[in-house]
Amino acid sequence: MPVEPPPSAWSFGDPTSFDDLDDLVAIGADLAPGTLLAAYRHGLFPMPSGTPGDPMYWFSPVHRGVLPLDGLVVSRSLRRACRDHEIRVDTAFAEVLDACADPRRDSGWIDEDIRAAYTRLHDLGWAHSVEAWRDDRLVGGLYGVAIGGLFAGESMFHRERDASKVALVGLVERLRDRYADDRVLDVQWCTPHLATLGVIEVPRAAYLRRLPVALAVPAAEAFA
């Protein structure tokens, strides 16, 4: 079972009062486990500004990227790739996080502060990795935060074609249970790539209405 950390010293306020024209809703605070969990429970997530020494930025997208669990698009080639890989959960969290943070990747945003913060969340049982393995090698994966029926995806990587997508299929399969209708698989923003996999945009207000319902259901067995 996840360990609830001390509560945050910070308040994110009423998320329904956020500016409906701006994804950036807060600046500052810290990355303590209690602060991170409070943020996700309010519909926010952190990202560094990219400038050393700047305070942390907190986002609640006006148009939230969400993957409906019954809407994942699995092509024929992806289905074949799934048969060639083994899915594991939380067996290589640090390696998945390091791969996602690789500075050689375009638009890399995971810095040492983020890495340390999510490692702490993992140690407490809140952050998880879903991994695609082939021939006993880690070839793709993703990590995110699971709070009740919310899985907030943070980043994914691949070392072989379609391996990150295989991990996503593995995640969706593990979220499809008797609470599936109430679960939320949050991917932050809907990119053109994610849209091809079935990700849709949900208005912030609709996301915030769904969030307490998701938080109230038990975590999926893989992440409990």
From TrEMBL:
Family from the record: Belongs to the L/F-transferase family.
Keyword line: Acyltransferase, Cytoplasm, Transferase
InterPro entries: Acyl_CoA_acyltransferase (IPR016181), Leu/Phe-tRNA_Trfase (IPR004616), Leu/Phe-tRNA_Trfase_C (IPR042203), Leu/Phe-tRNA_Trfase_N (IPR042221)
HAMAP family in UniProt: Leu_Phe_trans (MF_00688)
Residue stretches spanning the membrane: none
Lineage per the UniProt record: Bacteria, Bacillati, Actinomycetota, Actinomycetes, Propionibacteriales
Reactions listed under catalytic activity: N-terminal L-arginyl-[protein] + L-leucyl-tRNA(Leu) = N-terminal L-leucyl-L-arginyl-[protein] + tRNA(Leu) + H(+); N-terminal L-lysyl-[protein] + L-leucyl-tRNA(Leu) = N-terminal L-leucyl-L-lysyl-[protein] + tRNA(Leu) + H(+); L-phenylalanyl-tRNA(Phe) + an N-terminal L-alpha-aminoacyl-[protein] = an N-terminal L-phenylalanyl-L-alpha-aminoacyl-[protein] + tRNA(Phe)
Protein's UniProt name: Leucyl/phenylalanyl-tRNA--protein transferase
GO terms for MF: leucyl-tRNA--protein transferase activity
Pfam family, one: Leu_Phe_trans
Subcellular location as annotated: Cytoplasm
Top EC class of this enzyme: transferase
